[in-house]
Design goal:
Strand content: under 5%
CATH architecture of the largest domain: Orthogonal Bundle
Number of domains: 2
Number of helices: 13
Largest sheet: 2 strands, antiparallel
Shape: globular
CATH superfamily of the largest domain: Cytochrome c-like domain
Structural class: mainly alpha
Strand order of the largest sheet: 1-2
Helix content: 25-40%
Length: about 400
C-alpha cells in the first residue's frame, strides 16, 4: 500500500512515501480494525470530483479545496468521540446525517449539558457567498468554525478555561491513537497533528457534503431558467416558486404576486445574503425572556425536509418552529418589536413591519416549493456516514 501526500491526493493520486511493507501492512490492519470496509485507503471515496451543476457558482472553499484524502481524515475526526473530554460527544452527535446534518432537539447535548443554539444543518455549507460561520458569524471561516465547538466548555470541553484542558491536550491525546498516526501520515506525509491540519480536514469533509439531486435541480437542468415554470413541478409548486422569487407586492396592490424570499435566500444555491440582519426571532434558545439579536447567518434552505417530507429537526436558531407553514406565517406578518434593534430593514419596512398579505393557499404553495429543494443521496451515502465500527 502506498501512502500519499496531500498535493497528490488533490489530484486523486497516491504518491509513494518511503515506507516499509511491514508498516504498510500495519496501517491496513489498524484502519480495518477501526473502520472495517468503511474506509479503504487504496480506494478512497469520491469527495473531490463530485458533479456540481453549472448554475451553482458560489463557493467558499478559498485556499482549502476538497481532496479525497483530506475529507477522509475529516470524516473520521467528525465522527470521533475522542475529540470530546468525555469521549462521549462527536461533531456527528449534534449534526446527524439522517437530518441533513442537523438535529431534532432545540438544543443539543454537549459534555456539560445543553448547547446555546439549535444545531444548524450543514448540507451545502460550501455553496454560499458568506465565508463566516455560526448563527452569529463569529467564525471567520469554515476552518475556524470546525474546532470552535471542540474548544467550547459545554460542547466538547477543551476550552482551556474554568479547569478545562485546552486543545493542546486533545492533540497530545490524538497523537497517541494509532489510526491518527497513520491517517495524518497518509494525508500530510508525516504523523504530526496540529490544529490547522485538523481544521483543514474537517472543513474539507463538511464542504464535501453536497445535495443537488432534488426535484428543483431536475427542473433547473430541464429549462435552465429560474423564472420559467419547471415541467416536473405541479401547478402549486410552480406558483410557490414564483412567489418565492418575486418581490413583495406593494401594500396597495390588489393582487399579491410575490413574497420576496429570494431577497435574502438566493436561488439557486439558496444561501443567505451576507448583509442579512435579524429576522424577527429574538428569543434565545431555551428561554422565554433572554433576547439574542445576533443570529443573522442561517444555513441553506436546501433539505429543509427529508425525502419523506418530514422536517429535518427544527427551524430558526432557537428551534421555535417545527413546520414550514409556521415559518411562512412568521414572514407573512412581522410586527416590529421595540426590543429588536437589529431587525433587517427589508423586514422592518421603515418601522411599519412586514405584511405580505399571502393567502393560505399561497403560503402552502411556498411550502410545496421548498419541499422540492430536498434531495435523497445525502441522507444515506456511506461516504458521509459514521466510519467507525463501534463509536
Amino acid at each position: 500500500m502506498a501512502l500519499c501526500i496531500i498535493d497528490a491526493c488533490k489530484k486523486g493520486q497516491l504518491t509513494p512515501i518511503a515506507t516499509t511493507t511491514t508498516a504498510a501492512s500495519t496501517t491496513t490492519t489498524t484502519i480495518a480494525a477501526a473502520f472495517g470496509s468503511n474506509i479503504n485507503l487504496n480506494s478512497l471515496e469520491n469527495y473531490a470530483a463530485q458533479p456540481i451543476p453549472v448554475y451553482i457558482t458560489r463557493d467558499n472553499s478559498g485556499n482549502d479545496p476538497v481532496t479525497n484524502a483530506g475529507a477522509t481524515l475529516g470524516r473520521v475526526l467528525f465522527y470521533d468521540k475522542n475529540l470530546s473530554i468525555s469521549n462521549a460527544v462527536a461533531c456527528g452527535s449534534c449534526h446527524k446525517q439522517s437530518m441533513a446534518f442537523g438535529d431534532s432537539v432545540v438544543q443539543s447535548t454537549g459534555v456539560y449539558g445543553l448547547t446555546t443554539r439549535h444545531s444548524m444543518r450543514l448540507v451545502n455549507a460550501r455553496f454560499a457567498q458568506e465565508v463566516r460561520f455560526f448563527w452569529d458569524k463569529r467564525a471567520t471561516s469554515l476552518e475556524d468554525q470546525t474546532t470552535t465547538p471542540i474548544q467550547t466548555h459545554n460542547e466538547m470541553g477543551y476550552s482551556g478555561l474554568n479547569g478545562d484542558p485546552d486543545i493542546t491536550v486533545l492533540i497530545a491525546k490524538l497523537q497517541n491513537i494509532t489510526y491518527y498516526q497513520q491517517l495524518f501520515t497518509f494525508v500530510y506525509g508525516d504523523a504530526t497533528i496540529t490544529q490547522a491540519r485538523m481544521q483543514s480536514a474537517l472543513a474539507q469533509f463538511i464542504r464535501s457534503i453536497q445535495s443537488f439531486d432534488s426535484r428543483f435541480d431536475a427542473g433547473m437542468a430541464a429549462v435552465n431558467n429560474l423564472n420559467q415554470d419547471f415541467p416536473n413541478f405541479t401547478a402549486q409548486e410552480n406558483l410557490g416558486k414564483s412567489l418565492f422569487l418575486s418581490p413583495p407586492s406593494p401594500p396597495n396592490a390588489g393582487l399579491v404576486t410575490g413574497a420576496g424570499c429570494q431577497t435574502c435566500h438566493r436561488a439557486p444555491e439558496f444561501d443567505v445574503d451576507p448583509n442579512a440582519q435579524d429576522n424577527g426571532i429574538i428569543l434565545a434558545a431555551g428561554s422565554t425572556t433572554v433576547i439574542d439579536l445576533t443570529n443573522i447567518n442561517p444555513p441553506s434552505l436546501r433539505n429543509l425536509l427529508n425525502p419523506a417530507g418530514k422536517v429535518n429537526g427544527l427551524y430558526m436558531h432557537n428551534g421555535t418552529f417545527n413546520n414550514l407553514l409556521a415559518v411562512i406565517n412568521h414572514y407573512n406578518q412581522i410586527t416590529v418589536d421595540p426590543a429588536n434593534t437589529n431587525l433587517d430593514p427589508r423586514l422592518a419596512k421603515g418601522g411599519q413591519g412586514q405584511n405580505l398579505r399571502l393567502s393560505l393557499a399561497q403560503e402552502n404553495a411556498i411550502v410545496a416549493f421548498l419541499a422540492t429543494l430536498s434531495g435523497n443521496d445525502v441522507y444515506t451515502n456511506k461516504k458521509w456516514g459514521n466510519p467507525f465500527l463501534s463509536n
